Amino acid sequence: MDLGLKNKVAIIAGSSEGIGRAAAEAFGAAGANVALCARTENKLNAAAEEIRKAHKVEVFAQAVDVTDFNGLEGFVSAVAKKFGRIDICVANAGGPPPKSFLSITMDEWRKAVDLSFLSVVAFARSVIPHMQRNRWGRLVTITSTSVRQPIPDLILSSAVRPAVVGLVKSLAIEFGKDGITVNNVAPGYTATERLKELAGVRALAAGISEQEIYEKWAADIPIRRLAKPEEIADTIAWLASDRAASITGQTIIVDGGNYRGM
Q: In sequence order, which residues have a C-beta less than 8 Å from that of residue 203 and are 6 or more positions away?
C-alpha cells in the first residue's frame, strides 16, 4: 500500500532502538526523508547509516536528550533548516523506570513528567508552526496501554502518560483547521529492551526466570505472543499518511487484544 509519504520529512524521536528505530525504518521504506534523535550517539548514527543505505533517503541524525528542551528546539530548527520543511513528528521517549510508589522520590516524579509529558509539549510547540505553513502535518505520540489501564510496577508511566492523551485531544481540536492531525499510539507488551528491563524486575520479585515472565505475558494476550516493534511502526506510519486523514485526536491501542475495555 502506497502511504503517500515519499519525500515527506519525518522527525522520529528515540529512534536509536526499539519502536522508534522501527518507525524510522518504516518511514524510510515509504520514501520519507527522516530526522532521527536519541541520547546514545553511536547507536543513533549506526541506525541512520543503515536506513540511508537501505532506502536511499536523506537522513539527518543528532544526539538529543528530549528532556533538554532547548536542545530539542535546536534539533527541530536544524531539521527545518536542512530540509526546508517538517511534515511529520513522532514524539517518543523511553518510559520511566519500573518502581513501587513509596520508593519513588519527588525528583523522580519531576523527571517522569519531563520525559513522558513535557517532551511531547516541547515537540508540539516546535513543529506545529512549520506544519501550519504547509497546511498539512502529522503529530503522532507514543505512550503505552497504561493510558487505558494501570500496569503493575509502572506507576510513573500509569500516572503521567494519560496527560499525553489529554494533550492529543486538545491539539487535534485546535489545529485540525490547519490540516494537522494529532494521534496517539499505545503499544502493549512489545519485544523491546524496555520490556526486558520490566521482565527483569518482575522475575526478581517473583523468584522466577525472565523467560517465564515472557511466557506468562504471552499467555494472557489473545494472540498469544508479544507485539513486534515493526507492527507498532506500521501503525505509526499509517497514521502519518493521507490514508488516515480523517483520524485525529485518537488513541490507537496495538496490544494483541490484551486491553479488555470497551
A: 209, 210, 212, 213
DSSP 131-192: HHHHT-EEEEEE--GGGTS--TTBHHHHHHTHHHHHHHHHHHHHHGGGTEEEEEEEE-SBSS
Q: Are 23 and 192 in contact (CB under 8 A)?
A: no
Alpha-carbon distance of 92 to 32, in angstroms, equals 18
- Spell out the per-residue pLDDT of the chain, length 262, in tens: 789 999 999 999 999 999 999 999 999 999 999 999 999 999 999 999 999 999 999 999 999 999 999 999 999 999 999 999 999 999 999 888 888 999 999 999 999 999 999 999 999 999 999 999 999 999 999 999 999 999 888 999 999 999 999 999 999 999 999 999 999 999 999 988 778 877 887 888 889 999 999 899 999 999 999 999 999 999 999 999 999 999 999 999 999 999 998 8
CA 167, CA 162: separation in Å to the nearest integer?
9
String of b and e for 88-118 (b: at least 16 CB within 10 Å)? bbbbbbbbbbbbeeeebeeeeeeebbbbbbb
CB atoms within 10 A of CB 209: 11
User: 220, exposed or middle or buried, with CB in 10 Å at 0-12, 13-18, 19+?
Assistant: exposed
Q: Which three cell numbers stand for residue 4?
A: 503517500
Q: Which of 161, 181, 188 is nearest to 239 (CA)?
A: 181
Tell me how far apart the alpha carbons of residues 135 and 127 are, in angstroms, rounded to a whole number.
Answer: 12
C-alpha cell at 92: 517518543
